[in-house]
Structure prediction request, 210 residues.
Amino acid sequence: MRTDLVEVTSADELRELLGEITPAAADKVRPGLHEYDKAWLAASPFCVLSTSAADGSCDASPKGDPAGFTLVLDDTTIAIPERPGNRRADGFHNVLCNPQVGLLYLIPGRPDTLRINGRARILRDAPFFDRMVVKGHRPELALLVEIEQVFYHCPKALLRGGLWKAKDWQLQAAPSRARIAKLLEQRPEALRELEEYYGPRYGERLYHGS
Prediction:
């Protein structure tokens, strides 16, 4: 174990370092959706779903679809469709043993974010599945989230990271998706085949298998 690390070991120490929480930050958490929140969900095409297993191990999974993909059922209930992917279902396995979830919603170009925490259930069918059809794909599963907390997160993190500054994007700075799949995921195809697979036509298969 390293001995040159100075660790924070108590809530009191953490608060001493960070300072007292402001009243605005302390009081901004709400138990249900405001009309502003519903407008945000209607405009958001992307969120990150955070879950944890019974043993404390965690997972964060991206979810994306056309804007408004999260269905608002009422002021305290939302539903998120599951689309074809790699079938690992890490988050779903976590929900089966620990239903607590956290969601972070983004709108492209906006530096602030919407956060929703609650308890989730996995549904294999419901009347509202028909409202989740995209390009002919009706989801086989959906995540139903009973909301416990809703609040907005300030823009500082995304502004510091320059997330939406296209002029600063470095798309070629990391290995391509094909190279990652070939080396780290041990895909058997030739690199040339993988480059073609993950090329411009990859988007045509988003709703028809992985």
Observations:
- The chain has two domains: 22-161, 170-205.
